[in-house]
Amino acid sequence: MAVKKRSKAPSNTAKDFGKFLSQTVNLNNSNGKQLQRNRNDNGILNPKFISLIILWCIRLLVVFFPQYGYIQPDEFFQFTEPIAGDFFSFTNLRVWEFNGTASLRNMFFPGLISLPIFHLIKSTLGDEKLVNVSSYLLLVGPRFMIAILSFVSDFCIYRLCRLLYSPGPNCKSLMTNKSLDCLLVHASSYLAFTYYTHTFSNTIETILFGLLLMTIIESFPNSFSNSPPQYINIKLSLILAFGFFNRPTFVVFSAIPVLYWLACFQSNNHQKIANKQSRSSWYCWSMNCFKNIVANGLKLFTPFTLATMFLILVDTCYHHRLDDLLMAISQMSISKISHNLVLTPINFLVYNIQTNNLANHGLHPFWFHALVCMPWMFSLLAIIWYMDIVHKIVSYVWIQLPRNTISNWMIALLYTSSIVSLIGFSSRPHHEPRFLLPLIIPIVCLFGHRLFSFRSVAVVWFVSNLLLTIFYGHIHQAGVVASISHLQSKLNNSMSNDTNRSIHFMFARQYLPPLHLLTIPKQKEELFQVSDLAILEFPSKFEQKFRSIRPNTDVYLSLPSCLSDQLKNSLEKNFPNITMELVYQHFPHFTSEDLEHSYNVLFDRKRDSLLSIGQLLARLRGAFSMNVWKFASV
User: Where are the transmembrane segments (predicted)?
Assistant: First the structure.
């Protein structure tokens, strides 16, 4: 009978996968051998595996076909803007987070990712031709580095899923069906094509969180290894130190996994520990956990302290306070030593603990992360996560979960980490969707494979993430970087012609412009000036600045097209002798700051109500573009 069933087993991959899904409610059931055979049938020619490789290649290719989409100013101003300004001596905008007295941002990862590329550019072109460096190289170089680094998160998901969905100790397959599904969902997410290819500290935090989960879970004996990996305390200490300095919010993500490791990790078999604890009294169990916490904490103390000292030294050197620090050490002055040490995580916590400071960035209700940011970031995965939580809460009393299996405590750890992290971030009043980016690791591992339960759900996932990739990669504030690239070419032409005519660049009603992409040498700031009116009121602030510009100056203004009428009216009223010329227009460019003006341009009732396709496209360009205007000499 068994032979007969095997002879009728479907060879079609999709049918085999559907049968696999219906049989894998319990990962450690008696059908483990059958599941293993089905997994081994899925070789490298599996269409899903080929799709995964294609998605990985696309992640790298989209870097070189530059995404002008501008997600959030921190992708530049916490990463490449200060590094490029210092390394190339370009005019840059150093935001308040990098002030010398209380800097909030650690510079290790920005330097690690940006400096190798910048050094390669500088050594290739030489100092004399450095002014001719293309903004394209400055844009895609660091993005390529972080895109390469993002594959660490894919590797972590693979290792976690290999343990989560292993059918048993006899499984020799490197890639199970569920593991492949989770990797495919992760690689097809719009987060992988946008946040993973933009220089965000949140992307670094996601990578470190994945490494933390993988290191902790693999430190316990499992079906693939009966002994913990070596130097586990050093690995954890380094991850915690670098994660804390990269973003102190890493404490929220790492709290549950680290507490579990401190309380439960021992060199002997994890299964024996669980059995021993189940037979002991509550007092003995708690005392055993306390002893473990003390012993494991001491193991982490020395390497964590050394890594922390290194990172403090990096920030102290970056802010040019090392000489003062050495002088204070030689004088044995505690007050001077503490004054010259740059403790970026402490400054970060001191600033963000005050609600008045957070009010400058926007305050949100407690539920905003849960009801807005989670669906915004993870779409269908967030919905599945919420449905599963509700199901577990309602049915836990009636459904007895299997115990003493490796997958159960791993699932509980991933569940608890994601829930506690969401609650922890919701407790602070300032919410941004990108703060939750690291949660993609546990959520994909837990629920990524469920998206393939129904074909329609998978189609919705892929289509929605494709649209979000297009929006955030090529539409949202896309004209900012595109217009800067155009202006940079104007600047290079002016410097190559050695003209003494000065140029003034103005940016209004847009995200903060990353000025390092203009490649203006600091020694020529008198000839090439920049006015940042990005978040100021228009046109009043523009008029005020325009009056102060000296004569014999070429003035360029980067402005959303929906404000063109306001600009023309302002010039006719206040500067009747000034003419303007549209020299560049980038479409599409979406900005939420002036949606009312975009709406008025798109639905102008003063014009014809019936529009042809050409007229409709012209309306769209007028409502959602970024214009660069050139004014006659002032």
Answer: 49-71, 136-158, 204-224, 236-262, 300-318, 366-386, 406-423, 435-452, 458-475
For the CA atoms of 78, 84, 86, 90, the dihedral, rounded to the nearest 10 degrees, stands at: -120
Question: What is the rounded distance in angstroms from the CA atom of residue 324 to the CA atom of residue 314?
Answer: 14
**pLDDT of 102-133, one tens digit each?**
789 999 999 999 999 999 998 888 777 777 78
Q: Which of 478, 506, 493 shows the shortest CA–CA distance to 629?
A: 506
Runs of H (alpha helix) within 106-231:
108-125, 135-164, 177-188, 190-193, 201-218
**336 contacts 328 by C-beta, under 8 angstroms:** yes
Map tokens 């690690």 to a residue. 112
Find, among 146, 145, 119, the residue nearest to 133 by Cα: 119
Residue 483 · residue 586 · CB < 8 Å: yes
DSSP H stretches of helix in 189-281:
190-193, 201-218, 232-246, 250-264, 270-279
Q: Are 528 and 505 in contact (CB under 8 A)?
A: yes
Q: Return the residue matching tokens 């660049």.
A: 505
Token pair of 203 as six digits = 């992307």
Nearest-angstrom CA–CA distance, 84 and 75: 13
Map out the domains of the chain as residue ranges: 1-38, 138-474, 478-631
Separation of alpha carbons 183 and 151, rounded Å: 11
In the predicted structure, residue 271 carries a pLDDT above the cut 70: no
Locate tokens 């998605």: which residue? 55
pLDDT band at 9 (very low <50, low <70, confident <90, very high): very low
62-79 burial: b if 16+ Cβ within 10 Å, else e? bbeebbbbbbbbbbbbbb
Amino acid residing at 128: E
Distance CA(580)–CA(543), nearest Å, equals 14
Residue of 558, 569, 531 lying closest to 91 (CA atoms): 531
The single-letter code of the amino acid at 432 is: E
Asked if residues 591 and 509 have their Cβ atoms less than 8 Å apart, the reply is yes
Strand order across the 502-508 sheet: 528-533, 502-508, 553-560, 626-631, 580-586
Q: State whether the Cα torsion 185-186-190-193 is positive or negative.
A: negative
> Which residue did the predictor score with more confidence, 401 or 205?
205
CATH classification code of 478-631: 3.40.50
Q: Can you give 57-101 as a three-state secondary structure string?
A: HHHHHHHHCCCCCCCCCHHHHHHHHHHHHHHHCECCCCCHHHCCC
Omega within 30 of 0 (cis) for the link into 539: yes
Residue pair 1/132 in contact (Cβ under 8 Å)? The answer is no
